[in-house]
């Protein structure tokens, strides 16, 4: 579904990413970890078509990415909801932006809100919600147009530890019910191991793929499971290797 061939990216004289080759299959969940500044967000922005690679090619569903696509959604660290719009209207925002008819997506919006435990909150305004609830709204908004690809840039990192755990478990459930192709950037090794089929470990700037770790464990997984801890240990070792 996503292919990167020899992708490098330079900002002025800052080489952010170098020689990235990566294939992400349909409905695969790939997590990307690495030190701060190693180019994780740059990688997502290249796949999103928000940046054009200095070298190489990015393909989504076989097409070269030249600009943002309707079937690719992006979820950020901050939920970025419009404060004057209700929960329901925020979820439906991409539908308006893409010029679809809101009415046709209303039922789907309700279903998604139910799926993340926000049924009954449709008319609330963002300031009436907790941080975790707002990020759940943001998750529904990125699912509303049934994207083929979801790009997630540290979506839970602004949340407290308990809410963060809840939301990563919830994302696992959503992914089991509505599988998508996901590229998920995180600083949390545990989150990556809970959610991902494969984990890409980037080396420090310029980011290169140091190793790709397969997480071949059955789902649903639970944080604290012994098998997950073994993979987490391996990843800690790999991160220590690249930063040594
Ligand atoms: N628009 C930009 N202009 C100039 N330099 C940039 C720009 N965006 C990113 N960079 C630089 O490129 C490098 C990679 O940045 P990027 O945000 O992709 O890293 P990251 O791994 O996502 O970092 P973090 O984990 O801290 O979010 C960094 O050195 C950053 O300073």
From TrEMBL:
SMART domains: AAA (SM00382). Residues 2-229 form the ABC transporter domain. The keyword Transcription regulation does not apply. It comes from Lentzea alba. Signal peptide: none annotated. Keywords: ATP-binding, Nucleotide-binding, Transport. InterPro entries: AAA+_ATPase, ABC_transporter-like_ATP-bd, ABC_transporter-like_CS, ABC_transporter_ATP-bind, P-loop_NTPase. PANTHER family: ALIPHATIC SULFONATES IMPORT ATP-BINDING PROTEIN SSUB, TAURINE IMPORT ATP-BINDING PROTEIN-RELATED. This is ABC transporter ATP-binding protein. The lineage of its organism: Bacteria, Bacillati, Actinomycetota, Actinomycetes, Pseudonocardiales. One of its GO terms (molecular function) is ATP hydrolysis activity.
